[in-house]
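Usage

Read records sequentially. Each one opens with the input sequence:
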Amino acid sequence: MPKAIRVGVMGCGEVAQVIHLPTLRDLSELFEVSAFCDVSGAVLKRVGDQWPSARRYLDPRSLIDDRRVDAVLIANPHVYHTATALAAMRAEKHVLIEKPMCVNLEEADALLDCERRSGIVAQVGFMRRYAPAFVEAAAKVSAVRGEIILARVHDVIGANSMIIDSTSRVFRDVDEAAALAQKVTVEMAAATKRAIGDRSAEIARAYGLLLGLASHDISAMRELLGRPERVLCATQRLSGRVITATFDFGRYVCQFETAVDQIPHFDAHIEVCTDAQIFRLDYDTPYVRHQPARLSVTGRHGTAGLSQTSAFPSRYDSFAVEWREFHRNIVEGLRPKTSIADAREDLEIFRDMAALME
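and closes with the structure output:
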């Protein structure tokens, strides 16, 4: 494996343009973008013109078969993640799969089996778990897990477009997107039905929100607290765009809430309470780079006072940390903490939540 790992980018849309490609340019000593693939020739040309040495493909198979590609960033629509990742792993390409890893447990098991057979590195893109402040929080919470009395996971944000359109230039092929949308919707509905059964349209939309936004929160919750014993209750409201749940951790419960509103904000945090301390981790939007997660710790000070600190160990972007870990995992043959088996646990929790929403 060369020092600079050659990356093929599968899907050149918003997340690739705003986040991954700038990050890969910053990490040029570790990665070389060697190929692009997108269904839109117009997007492919606009993005590819910024990387003249990279090859361009309209057919995913051609990128996967390219001998100048060592690893594949899978950033195409969610419903195609599984087929793309399977093809890449069978071709002995390492994969960084944007969340959600896949849509249902059937797909997760196929990915898990293929990963075991291929021996490649498969890393799921839960960048929040690589943020320096999160790593620090995980160490602190791990030391007091037996003392936790309450936890809370909160993620209420405005539509991403309100932030992206005012801060970034994203090239979109509107005609191609419209042509693809119906096909993606039909295939996503079928994959969702295999995940949660024949539920209402509202619950199916809620499941989509769990796969998208909430997958970051549940994944981070599991690393901080462990896997809950069960889901006590779960609700969806307003056609699936507002979700609440209560997770049973035995000694305590964790309250969960997520929603998408019409305010251009990003209110995402996790709070863990003990009798002596409160740990709170706050995230900002990932679409404006180098905004660090912050860890706040509240506790007693003296006999009747209060001490509160808010800090972050680094401004280094969490996506850059994630990519650096991907490089290290490949070079050293390590298993990512955000592995396929790890991400599979989220799908089991989402399935149980959907069942309780009925």
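Summary fields computed downstream for this record:
- The domain at 5-125+324-332 is CATH 3.40.50.720 (Rossmann fold).
- Residues 76 and 155 are 24 Å apart (CA to CA).
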